[in-house]
Amino acid sequence: MNKCPLCHKEAFFSQTESLVCDECNLRFSREEAFAKAFFGEKKYFKKTRELKYQEETLSVEVHAGLAKSGLLYYATGLIIQHEINCDNDQNSLLGSAYERIAKDYCARALEDQEYQFIAIKHEEPYYAAPERLRLQTLNAVSIDIEDHTIILITDKNRLTAESPFWPLVTHSDLVVLVEGHPQENTLKKAAIFLKNHIL
Predict the structure, then answer these.
(1) Where are the beta strands (DSSP E) in 88-135?
(2) What whole-number distance in Å separates Cα of residue 163 and Cα of residue 190?
(3) DSSP reduced 3-state for 142
(4) 84-95: pLDDT as tens digits
(5) Backbone phi and psi for residue 46, each to the nearest 5 degrees, phi listed first
């Protein structure tokens, strides 16, 4: 038995090349099943909406509320796996936040702790290395999955009602921003729409 770097339990590692225990591998497998249903089968998709503000248009995809939880756990799991595979602190995405986020992930407490994320869909699959960034004043991590970019807020603090993104992260459904073209700053554009109560 070895100590798992994710759940910190003394546990069995039946796969010799695995960096986490069997129970945590099962967690990752559950999230993979969601990803197949969400990205491949479009199981949660409800509709596309075209939002209008002045001369501009912003497209969003609306998915069932269950997808919000599923995508939160899937993206967080991928970020955690990247962190576990990380060979030094310089490449760390989470830094000192790792223990807090890993604990909440294992306890299925991400929703109870009100973790927030923003999803952006691209025209084609877009792959860049996961990276740290700031969303307004908060620490966050950006990770690319299929043709989506997920921005997970990793800060202890959360976006508040004063943020233009508040209607997006608190919506009962999963609302995905759709990129108009690769050079477009979708987040900046969405902030203008949301600030003017258009969603």
Answers:
(1) 117-121, 131-135
(2) 12
(3) strand
(4) 988 666 678 999
(5) -110, -50
